[in-house]
């Protein structure tokens, strides 16, 4: 169950506490994605972000893969489900900067304002998700939670329908979305027609057996 949860208050750590937590974090890492503490107190490390996007994204046509609708040099297409990307960031990077880096890595042309980063936590057999504010620092959250993704993971999603900034979409993007929706609607319609045709054939066959003279 995916339950929405309010953001938790930020707890600031002293330099010594950060150092101790990084040492503890690195001792628990199993995938070599360790954190590094610099002399200036800034630390760097890795986060993994799962992309759970329901709507198509717009990329340069030469970079696109999968189901798509073309418009000039750009393509709107759906990312595969469960796509996970690893980013190397610093403790100063904000949520907004992480979103921008992810989109840049995938050559996405969409406005970053269309997307939001969530943290997902597992507690007491419940899965909680919490939308992060643009000013939060994902690497700090990773450090505090530890390296285990079942304790904390990051998810990129579109803003909820009521939160979508429609002015951030361009006319070609909206036209591409409509083309994809029309195509999918037609595909679903054909599937339904075949299903009901097969059902009708079975009914007619059954009726023929019932009314067949003995």
UniProtKB/TrEMBL annotation:
InterPro entries: RA_dom, RASSF1-6, SARAH_dom, Ubiquitin-like_domsf. Its main location: cytoplasm. GO terms for cellular component: cytoplasm; microtubule. GO terms for biological process: signal transduction. Residues 163-210 form the SARAH domain. It is found in: Cytoplasm, Cytoskeleton. SMART domains: RA. Residues 71-161 form the Ras-associating domain. One of its GO terms (molecular function) is zinc ion binding. The keyword Oxidoreductase does not apply. This is RASF3 protein.
């Amino acid at each position: 169950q995916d339950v929405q949860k309010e953001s938790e208050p930020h707890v600031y750590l002293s330099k010594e506490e950060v150092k101790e937590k990084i040492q503890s974090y690195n001792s628990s890492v199993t995938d070599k994605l360790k954190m590094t503490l610099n002399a200036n107190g800034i630390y760097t490390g890795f986060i993994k972000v799962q992309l759970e996007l329901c709507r198509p994204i717009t990329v340069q046509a030469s970079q696109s893969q999968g189901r798509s609708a073309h418009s000039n040099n750009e393509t709107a297409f759906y990312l595969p489900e469960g796509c996970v990307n690893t980013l190397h960031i610093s403790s100063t990077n904000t949520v907004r900067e992480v979103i921008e880096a992810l989109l840049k890595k995938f050559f996405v042309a969409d406005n970053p304002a269309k997307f939001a980063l969530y943290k997902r936590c597992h507690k007491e057999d419940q899965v909680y998700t919490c939308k992060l504010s643009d000013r939060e620092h994902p690497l700090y959250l990773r450090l505090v939670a530890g390296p285990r993704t079942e304790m904390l993971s990051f998810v990129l999603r579109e803003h909820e329908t009521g939160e979508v900034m429609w002015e951030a979409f361009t006319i070609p993007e909206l036209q591409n979305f409509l083309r994809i929706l029309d195509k999918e609607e037609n595909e679903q319609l054909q599937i339904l027609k075949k299903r009901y045709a097969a059902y009708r054939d079975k009914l007619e066959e059954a009726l023929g057996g019932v009314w067949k003279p003995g």
